[in-house]
Design a protein that fits this description.
Elements: E1 7-11, H1 16-29, E2 34-37, H2 46-49, H3 55-62, H4 68-86, E3 91-96, E4 99-101, H5 105-110, E5 121-123, E6 127-140, E7 143-153, E8 157-161, H6 162-171, E9 193-197, E10 201-203, H7 215-223, H8 232-252
Parallel strand pairs: 1-2, 1-3, 5-9
Antiparallel strand pairs: 3-8, 4-10, 5-8, 6-7, 7-9
């Protein structure tokens, strides 16, 4: 009998229809799971954010503040990563409540011991990114774990190890970028990051769908941006240059900390 890792579904209390959809999918697949209440960023006060979020650093790194939904999403994922460390959980599958799951998921989870030895976090879906042509391992016919050389994004579904949880928790606070910058973006340098090819989950909503969890709010903030006056403008362009440089470095030196 296959032994599965804990499966946690992040869900806002005010989204019962999403919760019901995830319950239906996971029960049909025979996967044991737990619905974990998400942090509602819209209800966080200034006192709640003190010490865990830096508006100044967000503006330096992104050129904007983090959306309330992005903050809530990040805190939700970080709480689960903290739980892994506190409860000494070796690996866990974390899903967001807008995931569409393929029937192959249980079979691939049962084969997770066959993942590359340096795999610390496996993205079941990603946006952007580029796979390495060399660092790959077949888990089952038609399914391959592949290392990234260009940063991917998205946290709709991923298998995390305790090693990944410790690395992310050590650097993510105070919050200043969305959580997927730590699970795959430019902040994830040094993380043993792989993706499953083809993907095992997908988003239920497109990025421009108003029902998407955070994208509409994020895009509204981006549309408010104008080219900032100095010295903020200099910091923003330095950030953009750093992102470009990091991208080029990781293309040829995947996995190294910079």
């Amino acid at each position: 009998m296959a032994v599965f890792p804990p499966v946690w579904v992040v869900n806002l209390d005010r989204s019962p229809e999403r919760r019901a959809c995830m319950v239906e999918q996971l029960e049909a697949l025979g996967l044991p799971f737990e619905i974990v209440p998400a942090v509602d960023g819209r209800r966080l006060s200034g006192a709640d954010l003190a010490g865990v979020y830096s508006l100044e650093r967000a503006r330096q790194r992104l050129g904007r503040e983090l959306a309330a939904g992005e903050i809530g999403c990040a805190l939700s994922h970080l709480r689960l990563l903290r739980r892994m460390v506190d409860e000494n959980i070796e690996s866990a599958l974390i899903l967001e409540d807008d995931a569409v799951i393929t029937p192959a998921l249980p079979g691939l989870l049962a084969r997770r011991d066959g993942l590359p030895t340096d795999c610390e976090l496996l993205l079941l879906y990603h946006a952007g990114g580029e796979y390495s042509h060399w660092q790959r391992k077949t888990l089952a016919p038609g399914w391959t774990a592949r290392r990234f050389v260009r940063p991917p994004y998205c946290t709709v579904g991923y298998l995390a190890t305790q090693a990944a949880a410790r690395k992310i928790l050590a650097r993510a606070y105070p919050l200043h970028v969305p959580i997927d910058h730590w699970t795959g973006g430019h902040e994830a340098a040094g993380l043993g990051l792989y993706g499953i090819d083809p993907v095992l989950v997908r988003h239920r909503y497109t990025l421009d769908d108003p029902a998407h969890s955070t994208m509409p709010e994020r895009e509204a903030l981006r549309r408010q941006l104008v080219y900032p006056a100095l010295p903020t403008g200099i910091r923003l362009w330095i950030y953009r240059a750093r992102v470009w440089g990091t991208d080029q470095y990781r293309r040829w030196h995947p996995g190294k900390i910079i």
